[in-house]
Design brief:
The protein has 254 residues and is an alpha/beta fold. Helix content is 42%, strand content 19%. Strands 1-2-4-3-5-6-7-8 form an eight-stranded mixed sheet, with helices on both faces. The protein is globular, with a radius of gyration of 17 Å.
Length: 254
């Protein structure tokens, strides 16, 4: 299995960050780790092995980033405004540094997809919904899309920009992002089993808001035995990747 580990200094974040690349070709996918985890998260929990056939056949190439969740989402003792500002910096790190790196690394203008599980799904949704022009689509698995849940109900303008359940319902019906969203693959998936309660609540809120705005997306709700855990995320990610790759192959043949 091809793996490349890149250590860089982020100008935006003012700290060292690591990015791991898996695979040598195919659709580029930017991967966010679970809460507080780093770029080795998918490898440590067996997701790389789960997707090994896609990777070895050069159907996909994964770009796995570090998180700074311990400074923002998980920093319960920190100043709330600073924590929100730090999350906003993370968004700009992805948009201004990681995305250009992916294009340079692949030598291609192909737009990457975004994906992540749990907190990684939050980051995927926030990043895609704030900058849809940079991405081909997203697959968000078991996220909680209300940022105030992690800030004990507190919110300011900065955190609002990082809370999809806040800014999507308030988006004007003629906002140019809506047209961009409708040109992309947007997938939200969650189980209805253990540890999915808040995720279910917020995904349903987004489902309603998307429908009201005329935004086309696939909101998928798996069974009551489907828990907030890696065995299900592996099944879900394979399932949705197969759908996306099949559709791309079909489009290329037309």
């Amino acid at each position: 299995m091809w793996r490349d580990i890149i250590h860089t200094y982020s100008i935006v974040l003012q700290k060292e960050m690591t990015l791991r690349v898996y695979g040598q070709g195919g659709v580029p996918i930017l991967v966010f780790p679970c809460q507080d985890a780093m770029s080795d998260n998918f490898e440590n929990f067996g997701m790389i092995d789960c997707l090994s056939d896609f990777l070895e056949n050069s159907q996909i190439r994964l770009f796995c980033v570090d998180s700074i969740d311990r400074e923002s989402w998980s920093n319960k003792d920190g100043d709330k405004a600073w924590r929100a500002w730090r999350q906003d910096q993370y968004f700009y790190y992805i948009a201004d540094e990681v995305v250009p790196f992916i294009h340079e690394y692949t030598g291609s203008a192909d737009l990457p997809y975004l994906t992540g599980c749990s907190m990684g799904a939050n980051h995927a949704a926030i990043t895609f919904l704030r900058a849809p022009e940079l991405f081909a689509g997203m697959i968000a698995l078991s996220g909680v899309y209300d940022a105030t849940y992690f800030w004990d109900g507190w919110c300011n303008d900065t955190l609002y920009r990082n809370s999809p359940t806040a800014f999507i319902p308030n988006m004007p019906g003629d906002h140019p992002f809506i047209r961009l969203y409708n040109e992309k693959d947007i997938i939200f998936c969650i189980g209805q089993g253990a540890w999915e309660d808040e995720g279910l609540r917020t995904q349903r809120e987004l489902d309603t808001a998307f429908a009201e705005k005329g935004i086309h997306a696939w909101f998928d709700y798996w069974g009551y035995d489907v828990n907030h855990d890696w065995p299900w995320w592996k099944k879900q990610l394979r399932y949705f990747l197969m759908r996306i790759l099949y559709e791309k192959k079909y489009q290329q043949q037309q």
